[in-house]
Amino acid sequence: MTSINLVEKALLVSIQDDVTDTEIMELQDTLSNRIARNDVRGVILDISALEIVDTFVGRVIAQLAGISRLLAAETYVVGMRPTVAVTLVELGMYLPEIRTALSLTHALSQLRRE
Amino acid sequence: MTSINLVEKALLVSIQDDVTDTEIMELQDTLSNRIARNDVRGVILDISALEIVDTFVGRVIAQLAGISRLLAAETYVVGMRPTVAVTLVELGMYLPEIRTALSLTHALSQLRRE
User: Fold this and answer.
1) Confidence label for A18 from pLDDT (cuts 50, 70 and 90)
2) Closest to A13 measured CA to CA, from A23, A26, A25, A27
3) Is A97 helix (H, G, I), strand (E, B) or coil?
4) Sign of the C-alpha dihedral, residues A36, A42, A48, A50?
5) Residue A1 scores a pLDDT above 80
């Protein structure tokens, strides 16, 4: 199950590889409302659970990152596996709007600096 | 009615949801002329009056932000509702060229820092 937790004022969203359409719509709602309501420093999308990725999941990542950026939250994607990066680029999804960090620790320390 | 006001040397443009084609062309003219003429620090597009958004309004935001950016004015979009962010991204409008701020206060303090 995809989950949202608060870690050091950052919303940590963990995306699982069995994420469904319904779950994503709920996630978009929850995420956008919490960003608008809370005083959150940023959003971290953890995709370390994803072993493979397709255009559907790629679009999910792009959309969630896009929403939080539009709502003025710093957004990082962490835990991207090498194969996932290769596949995304091969699919033509360069995701220019997202910032990546190697790990959750890196993302948190970058958010702390801002 | 869509209006333009000067707040701390920033042009504050409030976009209403009944904005028309004619109004937008006037707005583009007024905005570009005032940026070119005045010593303005930046432009703030306030879209808090927008409860829903479509591709037309999305393009209006992108165009106004694009014009002021091309004329070297820092541009912020403020007051975006969660549902508006979700819709824009679902419509594929990631608006990569715009900077958003949660509120007018945030946008003004960011403009002061520059």
Assistant:
1) confident
2) A27
3) coil
4) positive
5) no
Q: What CATH number is associated with residue A76?
A: 3.30.750.24
pLDDT digits (tens, 9 = 90+) for B40-67: 888 999 999 999 888 988 888 888 888 8
* Nearest residue in chain A measured CA to CA from B100: A72
DSSP B7-39: ETTEEEEEPPTT--HHHHHHHHHHHHHHHHHS-
Q: Contacts of residue B89 in chain A, CB cutoff 8 Å?
A: 63, 66-67, 70
Report the amino acid identity of residue B67: I
ipTM over 0.90: no
Total domains in the fold of chain A: 1
Put simply, the answer to whether B82 touches A71 (Cβ < 8 Å) is yes
Written as one letter, the residue type at B25 is M
* Domain range for A36: 3-113
Has residue B113 been placed in a domain? no
For residue B3, the cross-strand partners are: B14
Q: Report in angstroms the alpha-carbon separations of A48 from A15, A52, A80, A103, B55.
A: 8, 10, 6, 9, 34
Instruction: Give the integer Cα–Cα distance in Å for B90 and A65.
Output: 12
Looking at chain B from residue 85 to 114, which residues have their Cβ under 8 Å from any Cβ of chain A? Answer: 85-86, 88-90, 94-96, 100-102, 106
